[in-house]
Amino acid sequence: MSPLPMCPGCRALLDPADALCPYCGWNIRLTETRREGGIVERTLRPLGGLVPTLVAANVLAAAVLGVLQVLLLRSQPGHEGEGLGALLGAILDPHTGVVAATGAVIPEAVLDEGQWWRLFTSVFLHFGLIHIAMNMMSLLSLGQLVEEAYGSGKALAIYLATGLAGAGAGVGWYLLVERTGAVPESFAGAGASGALCGWAGVLASLGLRVGGEEGKRLWKAMVKGVGFILLIGLILKFRDTGGQLGNAAHLWGFLSGMAFGGVCTFGARARGNLDAVRAWDAAAILLTAGLLVSCGMAAVWVRGMMGE
């Protein structure tokens, strides 16, 4: 069963038969997509669609991270008997060092050791329950709008591409501040927020392109939301280069998302060109393959680190 469409203007759940949002007047036909979709959408449909699949992937990553932390802990003298309690604690509040070791963005590791795979894996790792819960709430809120307007293949490709752009921006920020000597000995970046800011950027562009009061409400909401995230980052971590790395990821994710939103077709036109649908599906599949390869390389790295 297809989910109820959500109004991009006010986020109300709508009757699929509605042509206009009864609450804010948004023209639903502008952003409505036909349901057959491409290969990505057809593949994800039995799983509930793109948004539940991404939530499940992030939760699975948190569980795997917790298992790895317990395995590392049990390898230490005096902790051989650690069990379920330690596992739950590791999932809810993983040690920062474990997140860093298993796949967070560490600029030195990316630049000096060629661990490019961290740019992929960092998008699905989080620093604890609050971090992942906040990001998953944002994913649920933004994801349905993006998937409804652009289709699953394009939404997935943009999510992964802007997540990569955000992670890469963090490394770029490191290179910039390294010249000033302001870089701490080590820091790590992780989380889905760069990709989510990318989705916010896509929706901001959508609002600008649709225009009118409805479009204005949408792009203003997206800009305010990302601006609030950047402000919090500045307030809480003004002296922390790692915090600025996070802000670089958020800002660049948003800007790259706006760029995608400026050129992407949306609504029924997003499905009208079969070649374009196939191209976006191919991009999504290639990026997903890159993610899977990166997860494999991370597993090899962790295995070597554990001395097995």
What is the topological layout?
Blueprint: H1 28-31, H2 39-44, H3 50-74, H4 84-92, H5 96-102, H6 107-112, H7 118-121, H8 129-150, H9 152-178, H10 193-210, H11 212-236, H12 241-263, H13 274-305
Helix pairs in contact: 3-4, 3-8, 8-9, 8-10, 9-10, 9-12, 9-13, 10-11, 10-12, 11-12
How would you characterize the overall build of this protein?
The protein is 68% helix and 0% strand. The radius of gyration is 20 Å and the shape is globular. The relative contact order is 0.14. Helix 8 runs parallel beside helix 10 (193-210), helix 10 (193-210) runs parallel beside helix 12 (241-263) and helix 11 (212-236) runs antiparallel to helix 12. It has a single domain (28-49, 102-305), classed as Rhomboid-like fold. The protein contains 13 helices and no strands. By secondary structure, the protein is an all-alpha fold. The model has no long low-confidence stretch (mean pLDDT 81). It has helices spanning 28-31, 39-44, 50-74, 84-92, 96-102, 107-112, 118-121, 129-150, 152-178, 193-210, 212-236, 241-263, 274-305.
Assembly state of the chains shown? single chain
| End-to-end distance | 46 Å
Number of helices: 13
Parts with pLDDT < 50 across at least 5 consecutive residues: none
What is the CATH class name?
Mainly Alpha
The amount of beta strand, in percent, is under 5%
Number of strands: 0
User: Order of SSEs, N→C?
Assistant: HHHHHHHHHHHHH
Radius of gyration: 20 Å
Total of domains: 1
Helicity level, as a percent range?
55-70%
